Amino acid sequence: MRIFVYGSLRRKQGNSHWMTNAQLLGQHSVDDYQLYSLGHYPGAVPGKGTVHGEVYRVDAATMSELDELRTKAGEYARHLIQTPYGSAWMYVYQRPVDGLTLIESGDWLDKDRY
């Protein structure tokens, strides 16, 4: 299976250790989403924008661990998207974004500019 990651799971980010057994397939950008800062990690929600990240191939065990990390308490839900590497899962933030900082570039690596 494949997963599109756009925040703390990306290379050299705070939770990248969760991707140790994953195979990086390449960069990708997803249209019709906006990226918001939740503090130490971001949340992508449907909207007018583009979110930038990376696509990985992961095994079932890694996907299960990521689901536990991201979907507990209903903070995120997995959505299937299309990428040049085939369909991939993306974690979409499920809570209101009112009052959160929009990362206009759509790239979590730019978070310090906002």
From TrEMBL:
Residue intervals of the Gamma-glutamylcyclotransferase AIG2-like domain: 3-109
Q: Which domain of life is it from?
A: Bacteria
**Could you tell me which InterPro entries the record lists for this protein?**
AIG2-like_dom, GGACT, GGCT-like, GGCT-like_sf
* UniProt cross-references to CDD domains, sorted A to Z: GGCT_like
PANTHER family from the UniProt entry: GAMMA-GLUTAMYLAMINECYCLOTRANSFERASE (PTHR12510:SF4), TROPONIN C-AKIN-1 PROTEIN (PTHR12510)
Family, per entry: Belongs to the gamma-glutamylcyclotransferase family.
Annotated protein name in UniProt: Gamma-glutamylcyclotransferase family protein
This protein's species is Pseudocitrobacter cyperus
